[in-house]
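ZP: hey, is the adenosine-5'-triphosphate complex queued? I don't see it on the tracker
AM: it wasn't, my bad. submitting now with these inputs:
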Amino acid sequence: MRGHSGVHDAPLDGGVNWRIIRSLLPYLAEFRGRLFMALGLMALAKLATVAVPLVLKYIVDHFEGAGADAMITVPLALLLGYGLLRFGGTFFGELRDAVFVRVAERAMRRAALRVFEHLHRLELGFHLSRQTGALARDIERGTAGMSFLLRFMVFNILPTILEIGLVAVILLVAVGPLFMFTVFVAVAIYIAFSVWVTEWRTRFVREANLRDNESNTHAIDSLLNYETVKYFGNERFESDRYDRHLAAWEKARTKNVLSLVLLNSGQALIVAGSITVMMLLAARQVADGAMTVGDLVMVNAYMIQLFMPLNFLGFVYREIRQSLANIERLFGLLETPARVQDHPGAPDLVVREGTVRFEGVEFRYQDNRSILEDVSLEIPAGHKVAVVGPSGAGKSTLARLLFRFYDVNAGRITIDGQDIREVTQDSLRRAIGVVPQDTVLFNDTIRYNVAYGQPDASPEAVERAVHLAHLDDFIARLPDGLDTVVGERGLKVSGGEKQRIAIARVLLKNPPILIFDEATSSLDSGSEKAILEALNEIATRRTTLVIAHRLSTVMDADQIVVLEHGRVVERGTHRELLAHGGAYARLWQHQQEHEPAASGD
Ligand SMILES: Nc1ncnc2c1ncn2[C@@H]1O[C@H](COP(=O)(O)OP(=O)(O)OP(=O)(O)O)[C@@H](O)[C@H]1O
Ligand SMILES: [Mg+2]
């Protein structure tokens, strides 16, 4: 799927990637009026700039022909016009900037938002295999690249093309085709050289970006694992690894800059060479009397004036290549198809009673390793089914499939008879509340994290949920109460507190179907008992899937399913399974012996 979108491996030889530029156009449509106004102002600015050397020529020619009293006879209008044109060239340019800035910034905002939304649309699998640090940098660089590209298209490339055209015409009319031809050749050589060298050095730019991403990702990952680093005293190891990344980055950057030196020097040589040729030509013509001194001054002024933006064009081309590479990555993200997608026109899930069925479900994360095989189970409406089994058996995977973080490879999952792939993800996820195995919190207040379950909930509702999740005591002991900030990923609250916050927000969401994945595993048996009571209370009217290691927490379930290596090996009530004397009975026996405190008696 990814291969078709050529963006990921855009050709280096194709010069500017027009596909990317075309895909930018829709972002400009929003401010069409402003865009045309900016283009108009740009044209005015260029006309004024190009007229300056022309006026200069007339002034010089006037002096050449006149005597001592020339000053008096120089038409005042000509001098005034010269000044006005100079000012106009700059002024219209500034005006154009002012008009256009809105267009570029808005486009940037729109693109950043689209990518952000798309990233949230992509499936869990994408995010698990992506480095968040690198992702953030891609977005940042991509949107900055867009702004740059848009700005410089309007502020530099188009005006320069216009200027070259105008100057060519003026030279043709004023001093003949030879000069026009020379200008074209000089400009062509210059552009060809710039493009060629820039293409060659693009690999260094990419390499530098890649290394930059790598070192950055490593730094973030290392800092996120701060505690682990300390546990094992591996600061040295970490900084050595970081330094290796930095060294690669340093090398890439150095190559990048060295190749830049080559480019700049080459460009300067071409500019100096072509101006010299033009001046030689002009000098000959003046000596022959075919041209006036004013013409020579004009030719010189044009050449200098022309190469000024062209000099800049070299820089801009480089930057644009870089921007394009960055935008390419950004749009590449946008073009990454979401593997879990709504069918066009998919209806919303209608939960009448809330019966959940897994029918012959098979699933694998990667093609070469099967995780679930032929799993069938039913959670009748309002019932509670527990899934138990050893670590890695696929219990959490079941929950992820029901929540449709992934699509099953075979079989189906239905809610009240509706295949969950046939309904909108939104409606499906609205109907399901999950207390995950590892809760991650937003770096905000407890109130914010609880209210996340239903952002428009009233403060009273939030407090009720907090109460139901037995968070009262904890919060009463906090100086800032509900407004305590939990730290990045919730690291400033204990594991049990985090779980209770997660429970509170699911209570607030109040969905008809619940999934508790080891929801009380971090609690001591006292708190666990209290919370289980609360959970059981809300679970009575709801369809509930409970995943647990501690069997004592699920002995009251309507049905217990024992999962081993992705297969259902036993099912029944607690009593039935004990009587059966199989895997469950053995597990129970084991836990009774080793965790008497948690036995629930
Ligand atoms: N994103 C993933 N990509 C590849 N393999 C995965 C992924 N997530 C889980 N697995 C593998 O799938 C298997 C089942 O994982 P799952 O999380 O469902 O186990 P579990 O039964 O919940 O275990 P535990 O009791 O330890 O939570 C594991 O062997 C795990 O390594
Ligand atoms: Mg699990």
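AM: back. The radius of gyration is 35 Å.
ZP: great, adding it to the tracker
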